[in-house]
Amino acid sequence: MQLLETLCRLAAPSGHEGPMTAFVLDYVQQNRAGWQHQPQVLAGDGFQDCVVLVFGQPRTAVFAHLDSIGFMVRYGRQLVAIGGPETQAGYHLVGHDAEGEIACTLTINDETETLGYEFSRELARGTELTFRCDFRETEQTVQSCYLDNRLGVWTALRLCETLEHGIIAFSCGEEHGGGTVPFLAQFIYDTYKVRQALICDITWVTEGVHLGGGCVISLRDSLIPRRAYVERIRAIAEKSGIAYQLEVEDSGGSDAKELQRAAQPWDWCFVGAPEDHVHTPDELVDKRDIASMLALYQVLLREL
After folding, report:
1. What's the chain's average pLDDT?
2. I need a labelling partner for 101 at 20 to 30 A (CA). Which of 131, 179, 208, 302 fits?
3. Beta-bridge mates of residue 78
4. How many helices (H) and strands (E) does the chain have?
5. Which Pfam families match (predicted)?
6. What does the domain layout of the chain look like in residue ranges?
7. What is the pLDDT of residues 171-180, one digit of tens each?
8. Using 50, 70 and 90 to split pLDDT, how confident is the model at 168?
9. If DSSP codes are grouped into helix, strand and coil, which group holds residue 145?
10. What is the pLDDT of residues 88-101, one digit of tens each?
11. Fold of 2-68+136-303
């Protein structure tokens, strides 16, 4: 879990994924010699802060977003949300501006419901703040801010250790809408003729999805993937014997929303571990679901 903790401690809210991009590129450089197969690494000019790893003769692309939720300083002591963080007065926030490091607390005006911060000075407008990381590991669970989607990034990086054929696409901007998937999808489709995808992200615990029950295969959220593709994934999962759960929701979204709207005929399915306390500093995931998620991705990339 050391890699996961390192990822959770990196601040990279939507729009400022650069630190995560740099970490991923450095991680690939430092660890690729131990991987069974070597990828082509695509990044930099033309890819913004995204990273694309291409292994062998790919048939499937895995999308994992690098960004997280957070807050941005507005005017005076006001904050505006980046993405959809849960808000509770007293949450510890961290960041930095030209005057130095920042460790402040979130405030909420009861009358106007506007967000703010409590600190010894006013912060420069545009300063980004993120939840302070308190990474907690037990024998059965991991708890931290930003497991969404650092756990997806962790899974994708671990998948690289054995991947022979496939594409790993680290995307940006998912939490705040829009994002970089449209140009990544077109590039991948045009260059490699790949048109099936897995969304390597984190979903939520509900009355029908439980911690410890295995990785989630989503039949729908606010969008509905093509059933024939999802049934292929279910069949592979069933044959593998890996624990998994099925999800049916009427809200929520992911990088899949851009694939659904793409001009190219993309098939997609969300496959990810469930977490409790979503978009708070205390996101909670069961280690059995982490193991299930990685194992299922390894099988799916071989079989799809």
Report:
1. 96
2. 179
3. 116
4. 7, 19
5. Peptidase_M42
6. 2-68+136-303, 70-131
7. 999 999 878 9
8. very high
9. coil
10. 999 999 999 999 99
11. Aminopeptidase (3.40.630)
Centre a 10 Å sphere on the Cβ of residue 140 and count the other Cβ atoms it contains. 10
Whole-prediction pTM: 0.97
Residue 228: count other Cβ atoms within 10 Å of its Cβ: 8
Phi, psi of 175 (to 5 degrees): -70, -25
**One-character DSSP codes across 221-280:** SSS---HHHHHHHHHHHHHHT--EEEEE-SS---THHHHHT-SS--EEEEEE-EEBSTTS
Alpha-carbon dihedral sign for residues 278, 284, 289, 295: positive
Question: Is the peptide bond preceding residue 149 cis, with omega within 30 degrees of 0?
Answer: yes
Q: How far apart are CA 155 and CA 7, in angstroms?
A: 11
Query: Is-contact 45 33, C-beta < 8 A?
Result: no
Handedness of CA 178, 181, 187, 189 (dihedral sign): negative
Same CATH fold assignment for domains 2-68+136-303 and 70-131: no
